[in-house]
Amino acid sequence: MRYTGPRNRIARREGIDLGFKTLGSKTHERLLKKLSVPPGQHGTRRRRKLSDHARQLREKQKLRYLFQLNEKQLKKYFKKAAFKKGNTAIYLAKFLEKRLDNVVFRAGLSPTRASARQLVVHGHIKVNDKKVSIPSYQIKKDDIITFSNEAVMKVSYIEKMLASKDILLPNWLEKKATVSKIVAEPTNAEIEKQINLRLVIEHYSR
């Protein structure tokens, strides 16, 4: 099942900002202040050293939460990546990055992956001028992503995102106004900034 509990609690347990909250919001500011303190009444106590298996498990969980997947979904992506010849971690990253909800988030069309997922499910996103309502839809090179109508762009949080100049696009993505285009195959560079994919691969390869 997909996790539906307190998001900041998960981010604090993993020790990294998993993008659950909108940048600049009060809840995000509170998270950053407490990010180094694990949740619970014993959060300030020193943690025990993790075993290799525990470290692998924690990285896998981080990846799950980052892309908001359940265990079955992530394992399916791993099997597809492992089936291909080459670096499994890179293929796993490609499959995750090319999810439509992730591309909407990376392009700065929504503040979080959760809101990006909602936009997709509600039919507010078009791929190559066709509505797509499946968050896991795999985007391809040269695909063009836009909003389905102008009314969506007038929603307050979307207006703020479109007006923001702080969006850092990955090098495989281009954006002009409200139109985003996939210009290259995604890499594992963005994910590796937060997750050690090697440990995730080791966990599933046991």
TrEMBL record:
GO function terms (MF aspect): rRNA binding; structural constituent of ribosome
Domain called RNA-binding S4: residue spans: 98-159
PROSITE patterns: RIBOSOMAL_S4 (PS00632), S4 (PS50889)
Family annotation (CDD domains): S4 (cd00165)
Pfam families reported in the protein's UniProt record: Ribosomal_S4, S4
Alphabetized UniProt keyword annotations: Ribonucleoprotein, Ribosomal protein, RNA-binding, rRNA-binding
InterPro entries for the chain: Ribosomal_uS4 (IPR022801), Ribosomal_uS4_bac-type (IPR005709), Ribosomal_uS4_CS (IPR018079), Ribosomal_uS4_N (IPR001912), S4_RNA-bd (IPR002942), S4_RNA-bd_sf (IPR036986)
GO cellular component assignments: small ribosomal subunit
GO biological process: ribosomal small subunit biogenesis; translation
Boundaries of every Small ribosomal subunit protein uS4 N-terminal domain copy: 2-97
Similarity comment: family membership: Belongs to the universal ribosomal protein uS4 family.
Protein's job: With S5 and S12 plays an important role in translational accuracy. One of the primary rRNA binding proteins, it binds directly to 16S rRNA where it nucleates assembly of the body of the 30S subunit.
NCBIfam families: PRK05327.1 (NF003717), rpsD_bact (TIGR01017)
Assembly notes: Part of the 30S ribosomal subunit. Contacts protein S5. The interaction surface between S4 and S5 is involved in control of translational fidelity.
Protein name from the UniProt record: Small ribosomal subunit protein uS4
